[in-house]
């Protein structure tokens, strides 16, 4: 009786590292869109780089769009650096929208006002020409 109790306590008190990862199923990966706005936050960290963007609406208000992408290493191979964009920068995000139709999505490229486009390593040949406005 004592051994099972000790084993249970050991398992409860010593969390096991789990290598979990979600799929890209929340995103419509065949649908490419773009949206332009001002960077609110840029989180350069693993497991996913994130951008929060303030986008002007027709009524003059702003809505916050949330984007995530691949890991830091995948973005680095596409030319991204942690200093590529910063809060306050105006950028155009090319992305795959969320299937639940909330604002934001999985970003695959970012174009800055000086015309520099940074892509993820999955989209090295990205041109942005086929992107429909978000």
| Total of domains | 1
CATH class: Mainly Beta
Please tally the helical runs, counting DSSP H or I stretches of 4 or more residues.
Answer: 2
H-E order: HEEEHEEEE
Measured on Cα atoms, how large is the radius of gyration?
A: 19 Å
In CATH terms, the superfamily is: Nucleic acid-binding proteins
Terminal CA distance reads: 61 Å
Strand content: 35-45%
Mean pLDDT: 80
Please describe the structure with a list of short key phrases separated by commas or semicolons.
about 130 residues, mainly beta, OB fold (Dihydrolipoamide Acetyltransferase, E2P), 2 helices, about 35% strand, disordered C terminus
Walk me through the structure.
By secondary structure, this protein is mainly beta. The chain has one domain: OB fold (Dihydrolipoamide Acetyltransferase, E2P). Helices cover 13% and strands 35% of the residues. The protein has two helices and seven strands, in the order H-E-E-E-H-E-E-E-E. The chain has helices spanning 2-13, 72-77; strands spanning 33-43, 50-56, 62-68, 90-97, 104-112, 117-119, 132-133. The protein has a five-stranded mixed barrel. A hairpin with a 6-residue loop joins strand 1 (33-43) and strand 2. The radius of gyration is 19 Å and the shape is globular. Mean pLDDT is 80; it is low at 16-20 and 128-134.
């Amino acid at each position: 009786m004592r051994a099972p109790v000790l084993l249970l306590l050991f398992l409860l008190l010593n969390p096991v590292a789990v290598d979990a990862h979600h799929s890209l199923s929340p995103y419509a990966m065949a649908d490419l869109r773009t949206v332009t706005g001002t960077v609110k936050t840029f989180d350069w960290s693993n497991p996913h780089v994130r951008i929060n963007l303030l986008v002007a609406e027709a009524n003059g208000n702003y809505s916050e769009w949330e984007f995530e992408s691949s890991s830091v290493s995948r973005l680095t191979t596409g030319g991204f650096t942690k200093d590529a964009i910063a809060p306050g920068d105006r950028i155009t995000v090319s992305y795959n929208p969320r299937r639940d139709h909330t604002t934001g999505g999985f970003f695959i490229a970012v174009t800055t006002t000086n015309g520099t486009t940074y892509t993820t390593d999955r989209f090295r040949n990205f041109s942005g020409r086929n992107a429909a406005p978000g």
